[in-house]
Inverse folding.
């Protein structure tokens, strides 16, 4: 089923992806020590066909979803059965027995769930995990903690059902028995480790998985010893998707000792006929062309919020979470069902103690509902109040703040204003949602003097960190024309001032605080776009921006 | 059940191994926090530690591992109380653990079926006089953290339920591991850890190959591999026991006390816990090295792991706190 203009030539490649996916599944069926696979595919016929093949995995399958409760995973008291039979009935969790867990919508798995599943995989009780990742955007990915513990990652989102050719049935039992007899020539370990290092794979789980995969591959083909084919297959299946750099792209390659290769050449001759270079090329061929851009983008995203505020827990509103013991009061809401469940086991004792024959609920049974909500966002305006254009810029910033605040009740934003001029920065408006307070505070804004950009960023950073502690999610919005000319120590030194600003920007980035840089100069200033890059921020050149445009731009940029 | 990977077979990671050995020599140092990237062998090292710890004497069947017959709690309802040698308990606190499971609660089974009030001890009881290990400690739920802080401070676990009031001693060495990228630890909990180490995967190929080969050997030929390393583990255990005895004899010159105080002052670490821990760690380290007197060298080497997690966070300092400690140690002690 070719897909028009682009289908025909892509077909062999897509078919190769499918075959690799099938091969990965076969290896996983042979050796549970491989952990599992991450499967990226949208719901559709291709995924259905692949899901059908999961039956190859020897153990029972359980489907789990990202919102699964601890009770379902780890087990607990089966209350209805216990009450019905009058005997203690323990409900077994899904993780109690070895099996294959199929995690649907894996990209939505929280760090908490990922940690629990990772713990299970680490325990070595022959659990396998197939994480079905339906992420549509490049940044909707499986939690790295889980991805790390799964040997394979397969992306079926680009292939069509025509490429997913049907495969003959497969029974792993022969290969499983054979696996124990497969031996590994000594230098294979070295080679796998070297190759992993060349691709900048830091974790040592990667070469270990590659080694297991090579063995399973040899077992699959009924070989007694791992050979070059097995190594190649293992590298392609396990190492390729973990690559963080192209081989030789930095000086790390120097770490690969050349002489060592010569020493081992004698024993290489009988077992290994594939030199590193060929393997490197084979893996490289699988890597996307834009690997480096992609990695840079991922790094930029690290620690940054999604724009809607970080999650925090409360007992009033938001997404429901498991209820827990607590006292009523402080506006907490009681979870009646959970409370009754908690009270149920003790009824026999309580009836004996009090002699009354009614339902007895005590304060320690009370279960309180908990919710996870997105915390409020704080826009930290950091405004350049220096020099000539100060007055107009401040006036427009003030206007923008008031406009944003006017919408803030709907958007639940707080705003704050830091201005910098002369040799230092000051907080003109501490974080607030009050329009009245804002208007009063902003009535008189002093301007003029030098541009201590670094000092402004430091002040904004300090305020942001303080706001984070109060449960707000800050975003720093910098308005300036960018000619920093006052250094952190107050000295008028352009070079030092620029360097300080860059350094402080790195700090903001390291704290994971979002930022937005608005260039109000008449011409876009390269130093500012560099600053935005350091901040991992959006850069908006807006000469002569007025309040309305400014508030629109900020709102639009932050809603992305 | 496979034996855990032997401690002595762990390649590299000298600082982490040293920190764990020190807590085995002197449990009052108060635990280790291991922070590092994925795939650096954090959990492996902690699980390996169990095999290394010298056995303790405890009352057989006692739920809180009491050292003396008189200490056995009444609710344990032990008929026969004999002292036996048992391995030092190393208890896992999994992330999904409920409050009831951590502190212990009324035995639901007995309450339901017999209408009896009986206490079912939790993880804290089992960890008494041993180790409590929390993997992914930075992801632990807040209410469990509160509870741990309370118990770690008082050394006692209190459970009140259905008119049953139980308290039992819960003194344990807290060992935590985690990946700092996934979440910070509250300063209060950080402070409870005596030592903290940062681990990274080895950078040179030869060491990495060694790791892979040993792991592979461990998984393929478990029996032979365990046999091969058992002797080395035993040697470390003996050295720990020797060091425990040596610790009692070790003298602490006033000059060293002065060094310690000066260092902590220069670093501006909060409270006096830093000084105490550094001193204890330095003493344990000297005992481990079989040195007869405590010197500046011991203090200098132990300063990073005893102090790096106690500094106030300074957003203006880009270097890690480990580097900061090293720099100030160099400045103060030369």
């Amino acid at each position: 089923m070719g897909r028009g203009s682009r289908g025909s030539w892509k077909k062999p490649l897509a078919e190769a992806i499918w075959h690799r996916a099938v091969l990965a599944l076969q290896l996983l069926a042979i050796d549970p020590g491989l952990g599992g696979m991450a499967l990226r595919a949208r719901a559709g016929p291709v995924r259905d066909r692949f899901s059908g093949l999961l039956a190859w995995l020897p153990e029972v399958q359980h489907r789990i979803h990202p919102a699964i409760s601890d009770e379902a995973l780890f087990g607990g008291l089966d209350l209805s059965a216990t009450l019905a039979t009058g005997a203690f009935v323990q409900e077994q969790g899904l993780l109690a027995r070895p099996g294959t867990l199929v995690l649907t919508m894996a990209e939505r798995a929280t760090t908490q769930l990922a940690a629990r599943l990772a713990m299970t995989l680490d325990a070595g009780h022959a659990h396998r995990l197939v994480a079905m990742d339906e992420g549509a955007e490049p940044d909707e990915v499986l939690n790295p903690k889980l991805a790390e513990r799964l040997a394979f990652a397969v992306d079926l989102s680009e292939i069509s059902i025509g490429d997913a050719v049907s495969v003959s049935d497969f029974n792993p039992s022969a290969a499983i028995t054979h696996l124990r007899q497969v031996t590994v020539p000594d230098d294979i370990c070295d080679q796998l480790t070297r190759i992993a290092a060349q691709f900048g794979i830091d974790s040592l789980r990667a070469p270990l998985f590659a080694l297991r995969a090579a063995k399973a591959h040899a077992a699959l083909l009924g070989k007694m010893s791992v050979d070059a084919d097995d190594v190649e297959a293992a590298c392609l299946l396990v190492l390729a998707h973990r690559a963080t750099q192209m081989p030789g792209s930095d000086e790390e390659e120097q770490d690969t000792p050349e002489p060592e290769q010569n020493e081992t050449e004698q024993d290489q001759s009988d077992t290994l006929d594939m030199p590193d270079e060929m393997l490197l090329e084979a893996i490289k061929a699988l890597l996307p062309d834009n690997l480096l851009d992609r990695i840079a983008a991922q790094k930029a995203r690290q620690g940054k919020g999604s724009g809607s505020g970080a999650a925090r827990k409360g007992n009033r509103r938001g997404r429901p979470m498991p209820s827990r013991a607590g006292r009523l009061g402080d506006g907490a809401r009681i979870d009646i069902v959970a409370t009754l469940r908690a009270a149920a086991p003790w009824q026999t004792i309580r009836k004996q103690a009090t002699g009354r024959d009614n339902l007895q609920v005590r304060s320690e049974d009370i279960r309180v509902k908990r919710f996870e909500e997105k915390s409020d966002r704080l826009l930290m305006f950091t405004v350049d109040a220096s020099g000539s254009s100060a007055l107009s810029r401040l006036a427009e910033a003030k206007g923008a703040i008031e406009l944003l605040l006017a919408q803030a009740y709907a958007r639940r934003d707080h705003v704050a204003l830091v201005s910098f001029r002369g040799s230092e920065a000051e907080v003109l408006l501490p974080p607030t949602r009050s329009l009245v307070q804002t208007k009063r505070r902003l009535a008189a804004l002093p301007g003029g003097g030098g541009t201590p950009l670094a000092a402004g960023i430091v002040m904004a950073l300090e305020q942001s960190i303080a706001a984070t502690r109060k449960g707000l999610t800050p975003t720093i919005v910098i308005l300036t024309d960018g000619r920093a000319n006052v250094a952190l120590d107050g000295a008028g030194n352009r070079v030092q001032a620029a360097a300080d600003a860059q350094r402080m920007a790195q700090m903001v980035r390291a704290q994971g605080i979002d930022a937005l840089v608005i260039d109000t100069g008449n011409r876009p200033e390269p130093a500012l776009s560099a600053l935005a890059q350091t901040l991992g921020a959006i850069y908006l050149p807006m000469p002569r921006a007025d309040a309305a445009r400014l508030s629109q731009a900020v709102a639009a940029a932050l809603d992305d | 059940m496979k034996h855990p990977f032997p401690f002595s077979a762990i390649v590299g990671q000298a600082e982490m191994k040293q920190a764990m050995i020190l807590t085995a020599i002197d449990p009052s140092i108060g635990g280790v926090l291991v922070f590092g990237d994925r795939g650096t062998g954090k959990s492996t090292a902690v699980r390996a530690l169990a095999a290394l710890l010298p056995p303790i004497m405890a009352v057989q069947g006692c739920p809180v591992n009491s050292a003396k017959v008189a200490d056995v709690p009444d609710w344990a309802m032990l008929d026969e109380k004999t002292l036996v040698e048992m391995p030092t308990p190393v208890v896992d606190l999994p992330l999904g653990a409920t409050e009831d499971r951590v502190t212990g609660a009324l035995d639901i089974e007995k309450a339901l079926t017999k209408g009896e009030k009986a206490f079912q001890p939790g993880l804290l009881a089992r960890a008494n006089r041993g180790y409590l290990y929390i993997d992914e400690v930075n992801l632990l739920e807040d209410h469990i953290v509160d509870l741990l802080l309370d118990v770690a401070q008082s050394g006692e676990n209190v459970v009140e339920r259905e008119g049953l009031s139980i308290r039992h001693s819960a003194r344990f060495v807290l060992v935590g591991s985690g990946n700092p990228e996934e979440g910070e630890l509250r300063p209060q909990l950080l402070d409870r850890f005596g030592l903290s180490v940062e681990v990274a995967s080895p950078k040179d190929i030869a060491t990495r190959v060694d790791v892979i080969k040993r792991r592979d050997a461990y998984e393929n030929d478990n029996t032979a591999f365990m046999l091969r390393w058992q002797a080395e583990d035993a040697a470390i255990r003996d050295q720990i026991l020797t060091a425990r005895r040596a610790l009692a004899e070790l003298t602490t010159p006033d000059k060293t006390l002065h060094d310690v105080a000066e260092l902590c002052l220069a670093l501006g670490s909060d409270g006096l816990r830093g000084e105490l821990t550094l001193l204890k760690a330095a003493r344990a380290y000297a005992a481990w090295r079989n040195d007869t007197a405590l010197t500046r060298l011991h203090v200098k080497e132990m300063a990073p792991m005893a102090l790096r997690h106690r500094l106030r966070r300074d957003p203006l300092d880009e270097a890690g706190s480990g580097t900061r400690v090293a720099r100030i140690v160099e400045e103060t002690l030369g």
The CA atoms of residues 47 and 353 of chain A lie 59 Å apart. Residues 1-11, 250-272, 297-310 of chain A have pLDDT under 50 and may be disordered.
